[in-house]
């Protein structure tokens, strides 16, 4: 099996949790994809970096990140996966709100102003979190080239309606789940 198939197995074995849950969007579901069980796993995280870098290899960007917390391990995995390549990436973290102390930065890490960046998320249902990150990135002067997620729960239309290209490594159908 290749990286894409190996990562799908980690997701279906470790991250898909069955039972009634309320999503961050406020919607209810009979199952939940808890990707932190995979994004923070010692064998799965390197796969995430490689799969997401492959997914977006034809997009031109030099930094990756998104709204904390879901995007952080995805961006970190991509940062590490790219380190030994001819296309190394920086990573950044978008806070939900600006800091009231220190440098009062909303985006942590290397400066994104004037740079082409990719907004990422582990999974997205409505696109709300990743679009919040996109707004903050644009306010900071970044050129957002697109949005990529590990698992799409339905956010594609909202992201595309905001004028951004959107890609997902896996759909719910890929994971044997019904929306």
Tell me what the structure shows:
It is a single chain. This protein has helices spanning 3-15, 36-39, 44-55, 72-82, 128-139, 156-161; strands spanning 16-22, 28-33, 63-67, 90-94, 107-108, 116-124, 143-152, 166-171. By secondary structure, the protein is α/β, with parallel strands linked by helices. It has a single domain (44-173), classed as 3-Layer(aba) Sandwich (Rossmann fold). Strands 5-4-3-6-7-8 form a six-stranded mixed sheet, sandwiched between helices. Strands 1-2 form a two-stranded antiparallel sheet. Helix 1 crosses helix 3 and helix 3 (44-55) packs across helix 4 (72-82). The radius of gyration is 16 Å and the shape is globular.
How do the helices and strands line up, and which of them pair or pack?
Blueprint: H1 3-15, E1 16-22, E2 28-33, H2 36-39, H3 44-55, E3 63-67, H4 72-82, E4 90-94, E5 107-108, E6 116-124, H5 128-139, E7 143-152, H6 156-161, E8 166-171
Parallel strand pairs: 3-4, 3-6, 6-7, 7-8
Antiparallel strand pairs: 1-2, 4-5
Helix pairs in contact: 1-3, 3-4
Enzyme class: transferase
Organism: Micromonospora sediminicola
Family: Belongs to the purine/pyrimidine phosphoribosyltransferase family. PyrE subfamily.
């Amino acid at each position: 099996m290749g990286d894409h198939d190996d990562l799908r197995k980690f997701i279906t074995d470790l991250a898909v949790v069955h039972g009634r849950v309320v999503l961050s969007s406020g919607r209810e579901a009979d199952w939940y994809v808890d990707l932190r069980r995979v994004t923070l796993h010692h064998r799965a995280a390197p796969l995430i970096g490689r799969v997401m870098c492959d997914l977006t290899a034809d997009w031109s960007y030099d930094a990756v990140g998104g709204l904390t917390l879901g995007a952080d391990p995805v961006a970190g995995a991509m940062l590490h996966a790219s380190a030994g390549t001819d296309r190394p990436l920086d990573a950044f973290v978008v806070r939900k709100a600006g800091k009231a102390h220190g440098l009062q930065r909303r985006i942590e890490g290397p400066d994104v102003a004037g740079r082409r960046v990719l907004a990422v998320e582990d999974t997205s249902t409505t696109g709300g979190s990743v679009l919040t990150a996109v707004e903050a990135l644009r306010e900071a002067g970044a050129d957002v080239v697109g949005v990529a997620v590990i698992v799409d729960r339905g956010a594609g239309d909202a992201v595309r309606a905001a004028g951004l290209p959107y890609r997902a490594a896996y759909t719910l159908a890929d994971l044997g789940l019904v929306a």
